Amino acid sequence: MKRRLGIILSVLSVAGICFFTLRHGGTEFTKGWSWSITSGDAALAELIQNLILFIPLGVSLALAAPRRPLAAVVFGALLSCTVEFLQQWIPGRDPSVGDIVCNSISTALGVLLVVAAPQWLFVSPRRSAWQALGTAILAAGVWVFTGLMVQHEVTPQPYTVVLTPDFNFFGHYRGSVVKVTPGVGSLEVTAVAAPYPPGRTAPLLAIVDRDTNKIIMLSVDGPDLTLRFYMPALRWTLEQPDLRLRDGMKGVAPRDTFTAATWHDSTNVCLRVNTIERCHLGYTIGDGWKLIYYPAGRGPGIMGGLNLLWMAGCVMGVGFWAARGRRGERGGGEKGGGEKDGGERGGGEKGGGEKGGGARPRGLAIALIIAGLLMVPLITGLKPTPVTEWIGTLVGLGGGYFLGNRTLKRRLGNDTSPQGLANQ
């Protein structure tokens, strides 16, 4: 059963890798191979993408062929070589030796996760409880990091205003800007619409500093008006998610004259096209994944769903190890062992292990998650956590708890002795 599942997941992983790496990413062909591990404005984000992309393949291959870990790594390396070789003839793709190295390493990491699973996944109740707390601390850290990375950052003047700029990795807006009206915390642009909506983010106007950092960029992307501003994520070479007035340009016909504007105060960002406006724009803790990969132009339903999944993934380990810590301690409660063994040898309800072993770290883990959802936005200036992200958190905690409970029951079913319970 496990091998069959591994084969199915391996096929899906290979299909996913081909889908993400063999699509055209522009109109120009590569001029040669890159020999650097990572480079460019989003170097760190691309490095993380490469590492993440092949980990599921390593996990799947390790499940399909558990006795051949080296063969799985070799397969991942050969697949990466094939992909990079084919990218020479795909517009907008850049074959890189660094990608092959990263993909091979991430395949090996995936294999290692499966091989070493007993040492980190199925551990004693006491250690499970502390791993739940550690995972909660990591999740809260990721949320704080997200808030710090998307804060508006002001660089030293002087600034230069560039109209309909033609930047790398962005489209070129085919309309024209007639007038620019700056204000205190506001910017208004009067422009003539392009003959057709741009297929990618095309700046109407950019304000750049002396180091060519884009301090503010007001753009059109299909039917949307978008806003980007300089943020710490750019210094860290991560992706830069934008703020959008969705369908703001929908009522603007080709060659129409329209007005686009943005303004803000300490807590509020607004966008407007003619009479259509939207305020209270901003980022949430669920937007953290966008710093790694940002599919600009996707619908709000897709983006919201990915935010939900991101939140679930952040806390699933908390639920998993919390369940294993609690159930393991209860399973050995009647046999005693209590505080002396710290809950590892079955000090459950009667022996006191619940108190001395894992109850406290598990409770702290759940409290930290709830506090993070409430307090991180206040501390970092993010928007309050929306209902969908609360739901995602509950789904992650519940799903992890279910899996932890289920795996523990299966293992306890094979050994119900006090020593066996302690080793679970």
Task: Provide structural commentary.
With 424 residues, the protein is an alpha+beta fold. Helix content is 49%, strand content 14%. The strands form two sheets. A five-stranded antiparallel β-sheet has the order 1-4-5-6-7, with no helix packed on it. Strands 2-3-8-9-10 form a five-stranded antiparallel β-sheet, with no helix packed on it. A hairpin with a 4-residue loop joins strand 8 (257-264) and strand 9 (269-273). The chain is globular.
Break the fold down into its secondary structure elements and pairings:
Layout: H1 2-21, H2 43-64, H3 69-86, H4 97-115, H5 117-120, H6 125-149, E1 159-163, E2 176-183, E3 186-192, E4 202-209, E5 214-221, E6 224-229, H7 232-235, E7 243-245, E8 257-264, E9 269-273, E10 276-278, H8 300-331, H9 353-380, H10 387-414, H11 418-423
Helix pairs in contact: 1-2, 2-3, 2-4, 3-4, 6-8, 6-9, 8-9, 8-10
Keywords:
alpha+beta; 11 helices; 424 residues; 5-stranded antiparallel sheet; single chain; disordered C terminus; globular
Major sheet details: 5 strands, antiparallel
Total strands: the figure is 10
- What would you call the shape? globular
H/I helix tally: 11
What's the N-to-C terminus distance? 23 Å
Strands ordered across the widest β-sheet: 1-4-5-6-7
Task: Tell me the series of helices and strands, N- to C-terminal.
Answer: HHHHHHEEEEEEHEEEEHHHH
Beta-strand portion reads 5-15%
From the alpha-carbon coordinates, what is the Rg to the nearest angstrom?
Answer: 26 Å
The percentage helix is 40-55%
- The unreliable regions are 331-356, 416-424
Q: What is the mean predicted local confidence, pLDDT?
A: 87
Structural class assignment: alpha+beta
